[in-house]
Amino acid sequence: MRLALPAVGTVARLIRLPAGDTLARLNDRYWLRASMLVWLGVAIWFFWDRWPYIYWLALRDTDDNMRLMQVRALLSGQGWYDLTNYRLNPPQGFNIHWSRIVDLPIAGLILFFRLFTSNWWAERLAAGIAPLIPLSVVIGALGFTVRRLVGAFSWPLMIAMLLLSSGPAILMFYPMRIDHHGWQLAALTLTVAGLADDRRVRGGAIIGASSAFSLAIGLEMLPYCAMAGAILTLRWIWDRDDARRLLVYALTLGGGVAIGFAGFASYANRAMRCDALTPVYLATVTLSAALLFVLAWVNPRARLIRLTLAVLAGAAIAAAFAAAFPQCLGRPEGASPELYRVWLDNVREAKPIYEHPLRNIVRIATLPVIGLIGAIVATVVAWRRGRFMLWLPAALFTAFACAMLLWQVRAGPAAELLALPGATALAWIVIPWLVTRRGWMPKVVGAGVGAAILAAVFAGVLLGWFRVDPMNEYHRVVNRANARCASYSRLKQLDRLPPQVIFTHVDLGPRLVTVTHHDAVAGPYHRNGPAILDVHHAFEGTPERAHRIMKRHHATLLLVCPNMSETTVYRASAPDGFYARLSHDKVPGWLTPVELPKDSPFRAWRIR
């Protein structure tokens, strides 16, 4: 036990088991197996509950569709280091900044299921199962963390909070969510487990390896990896005996990043780009690891000297990065100012949380705030018991994750997962107090804290009851159009037409090429920037300009989805543009209508 000494006896009385050594030994021996049984049950339930999505290959996110296209290309013989998608912007295609790491489990599952069934079924089963695999890592890693920080019997409470949070985090592990975010979140929870591990060598190795693994997948978690390194350095500054943890971390981080680059960096990622694990970050991370290794090896006795050396090392790393890679001092995408203006700055996930509707703010931020409060309370308790460094790393990581929400709302899933140890600790302190104390004051305080925890857990349900900032009719129309135009059955109707290059919306491109035999011009990826701008220029410009752009891309069919969210941008930015004219049935003479089924949400024209 870490935080509440009466908790073992309380839990034992509640579940009618004998407290003491027998229960503790059973828990220590079988908690991981039990948590994996819980994961298996959850996985079966998710698979059954999402079966309609699996059957209809409902890959709603563009990244999920593009991931499946990348796996298909690999299984069709495309080169390991060639991540060009030739179905978008043909014939040259475009390169994406991902790696092959996340392709491996999906491809392996497809090959396995091909032994028993058709490729049609193999893809669906693989896409349904693959996202559930990193969920097992999350449950195991967070269970390990709360057992070290909160209490040996606290892991079931943590799992309950994880599964009932109804927030963005658990959605990342639903069947069909085959993009890379689930694996990166799993790596993040391993990093937290390494910070909580009292075995220094093992903890440092876990943090270094998980950070390297995450960076080899993509740079989305780079700030968290940097924060983990900073926390480890602060621990070493405070406690000289933590040098072994820092030394092992430096070795595994530097070696892991080198292995990740050699094994998974695509041909395009061997250039000096700033948006993936390229030579830019390979050099920066290995330099950082080397300096940390030297600091841990020297390991001065005076705390002030350790602090001074750490500050000098950080300054040297920053100066070297700025001098060697000045092109990476700004935003990592390296896109043109126009692309930022017309597209990247309008991506909802890239906006801070306070620019979102209130219902989204409540749903995303409630659990992280509760977790931060719990982490602070637990840190104070640990301080009073002389174990300050037990909880401080977790509290710092939780506070950092909450601050990241003020930068981009896409940090929500990470913030929720990092909040679980703090939320579990808060409940773990309150429950024994409620059960063992007498009098009305503990009951009132405990009830208030319990209500706050329940609000965090059931934020999504409460929003449905109280209708906070309800969605208006306009947003319902847009959401309905987004869903109908991504529908497998309605897109598949387009296969009645001969294969060709279709000029359509940027956000529809990946889904179109995944479901149909047609090619598209653009997808929402910054390395596809020129094609993205061409689509915007066509829909927002004059009909004559649109015609020239479409012919340059060898497009023979124009496909639009009325009221799709992307079309609202066209109408707002260019009220007299080509798309606005189309929406008012002002069709130029070089377009010939194409008849589609009556239930089709699309409108199509042959480009003459």
TrEMBL record:
The keyword Lipid biosynthesis does not apply. It comes from the Bacteria. Keywords: Membrane, Transmembrane, Transmembrane helix. The keyword Membrane applies. The chain crosses the membrane at residues 30-48, 125-146, 152-174, 205-234, 246-268, 280-298, 304-325, 361-382, 388-407, 414-435, 447-466. This is AcrB/AcrD/AcrF family protein.
